[in-house]
Amino acid sequence: MIAIFREKLLHLIHCRTLTHRSLKKLLTYDPRLTHLYSYSIDTFQQILQLEPPKIKAFLNEFQSLKIKALLKLYETKGISIIHLEDQEYPSILKEIHDPPFVLFTIGNKQLLQKNMFAVVGARDANLYAKETLDLLIPPLIKRGFVIVSGLAKGTDTLAHARTIEHGGKTIAVLGGGFFHLYPRENLRLANEMKQDHLLVSEYPPIQKPEKWHFPMRNRIISGLAKGTLVVQAKSRSGSLITADFALESGREVFAVPGPIHHPLSAGTNHLIQQGAKLVLNAQDILDEIIVD
Fold this sequence. Notes:
Elements: H1 4-13, H2 20-29, H3 41-48, H4 52-64, H5 67-76, E1 80-83, H6 91-94, E2 102-107, E3 116-120, H7 127-142, E4 146-149, H8 155-165, E5 170-173, H9 187-196, E6 198-201, H10 213-224, E7 227-230, H11 238-248, E8 252-255, H12 266-273, E9 277-278, H13 282-286
Parallel strand pairs: 3-4, 3-7, 4-5, 5-6, 7-8, 8-9
Antiparallel strand pairs: 1-2, 2-6
Helix pairs in contact: 3-4, 7-8, 10-11
């Protein structure tokens, strides 16, 4: 049974027109959302400070959503919802600047209580990335780490797949809802992970991924992990955003060096220049990470 406050919060989270920042404004004004359903249009305008067309769009969506029906549907699909106040919510994620209010999950939620390590990199990762992960992942698994990545093409896919093949556990943090899995080519991998591993998203299952979701998704990947490894990355890469989030949260950042003439080495070599730990073997990682 979902408490009234959480149901109201989930109602708001399902409104695509309401940003994370706007939701924080509502929670600052009314922390338990006690009077949410009695707000006038003027009150919403006063709190959210949005233009009239945006307020109108939000109210149309807010009033048309059938949140109870959606939550019942999620339950039938094996989707769990973990709120920031729940004991199941990973304490390490609470440490970041802007933790998600809720996590939608499918799979083994207990993995969120384990020691986690993030692996990210280029979408057009090559054989070098595969061989690197085959070298680094087994020792991390042996030390009990759960490998976290983003289910994207390339390095993320390799990280999840190689972890499973080597007998480890892995978590995929998505940039959209479970009913709109992206990329579609990883549907089979995602379905496999639903059994013994874990899919996580801060976005409701019905919400399609948007371009701006993925940088936000990256803060969760690094926020769950004690450290983040970047395997390959171009000079402008989402993986570098993940590394920045890790640094902001006081977490360790690791990078695999590469040939100076190769575009996929530009980002990782730059990270090393900026102070990331250069990784030649798994021990370079294990020497820096404190295991609970």
